[in-house]
Write a structure and sequence with these properties.
This protein is an alpha+beta fold. The chain has seven helices and nine strands. The strands form three sheets. It has a four-stranded antiparallel sheet. Strands 7-8-9 form a three-stranded antiparallel sheet, with no helix packed on it. It starts with 11 loop residues before the first helix and ends with a helix.
């Protein structure tokens, strides 16, 4: 934005009709006559320097305008061209502010073969104990030894408090933390699940690794107060005895004797029948 302070008096050689004609011809020489519009005023940069503005008719630069700066040396016959540029106006469409690549990266952006440099002063890392290995007992110099690994033996830098806290917040608030919808509906927490593999280090009291192939968190870091429906003790199904298979004999047969049923009429019923017949 231009300063709102009072402008110095303009040199007539930079603002007369010849100066305006010189300025528009300079802009047309860069962009073409069909893309340079009318005169849009001028700004007095100093006593002998003036910048003239012309509308830009290029559809790709809507809201921009041409700026042609003229200067006049006292005693010279006319002004000369200093600079010709295209500048954004108040309604210009501008690209978003430039963001460094280190701030644009998102989880999942790193692909096969990509190399992600780490800043030397990365606050997530602090120097390890590399170089001091010779002063420590032999059992601690093995990088695979848990105490040695925790101290950073064999690693030039290890996780700082900042990096650790960022990881804790990210994991705890993520999909495998206690606030996840899956955890809210779970029958039990990971603290009592047999599929959780404990981890070492300072985060072992809050996180573990899921080893249940049927769980949505298999192979992921989970908060110990997370949970899902695949909990090892959610519902223990007893081992029942298998039912004997049903065997149908379609070859053999057996003879069933049918006994005749003899119905004997009682004397009372016969007498009653005869009496009804005579009446």
């Amino acid at each position: 934005m231009r300063s709102t302070q009072a402008q110095p008096k303009a040199d007539a050689a930079c603002t007369n009709a010849n100066a305006v004609k010189l300025a528009v011809l300079a802009a047309q020489g860069v962009e073409g006559a069909d893309r340079v519009g009318g005169h849009d005023g001028y700004f007095v940069d100093s006593e002998h320097v003036v910048t003239h503005y012309f509308a830009c008719l290029n559809f790709a630069y809507k809201g921009w305008r041409w700026a042609v700066t003229l200067s006049h040396v006292p005693g010279a016959a006319a002004a000369t061209i200093d600079d010709v540029v295209l500048l954004p106006g108040d309604e210009a469409i501008l690209p978003p502010a430039w963001v460094p690549w280190s701030e644009r990266l998102q989880p999942g952006d790193l692909g096969v073969g990509d190399v992600l440099p780490t800043r030397e002063d990365d606050p997530r890392l602090v120097p390890g104990f590399t170089g001091l290995d010779e002063t420590l007992p032999e059992e601690l110099t093995d990088p695979l030894n848990p105490p040695g690994w925790e101290l950073g033996l064999g690693r030039e830098r290890i996780l700082s408090d900042v990096g650790r806290n960022e990881a804790v917040y990210r994991w705890y608030a993520g999909d495998f933390g206690p606030r996840a919808a899956m955890a809210q509906a779970a029958p039990a927490r990971c603290t009592t699940c047999g599929f959780v593999v404990p981890i070492g280090g300072a985060l072992r009291q809050a996180f573990g690794v899921c080893a249940n192939v049927l769980a949505p968190s298999d192979g992921h870091i989970v908060a110990l107060d997370y949970g899902c429906g695949a909990h090892s003790e959610a519902e223990i199904q007893p081992i029942g005895q298998a039912a004997e298979p049903l065997i149908i004999d379609e070859v053999g047969y057996e003879i069933v004797e049918v006994q005749a049923v003899v119905v004997q009429e009682s004397s009372v019923d016969i007498a009653a029948t005869e009496e009804l017949g005579h009446s």
